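WARN retry 2 of 3 for item q-0093 after timeout on previous attempt; input resubmitted unchanged.
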Amino acid sequence: MTMGMCYRYLYLFIGIVENTYLAIKSRIGSGVHHKKGREIVAWNIANLWQRSYQLSDQVYGAMLSRGYRGEYRTLNEFRATSGDWLLIGIAALFFALMIGANRAGMV
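OK item q-0093 returned
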């Protein structure tokens, strides 16, 4: 469950990094002294850390408000029935026929 949450917010975090990088490039350009550049990068890393920490607090608060108590619960455990296996077989047969028709030049 934790990995699912990480995967979900990884794209949001990448967007924040991209926006931060664009902000740095638009503010300082390319001709900046290396000392000033290090200061800007350090400030942006600290800002990014603070924003990600705030985001994690907001996500955790949202999870708590929706009933999260440290473990996930489901209504019932999934078990495949004979109908499920039948539909999987029909889908596999359909795809095999479509691939065969495509190779034969019919589609």
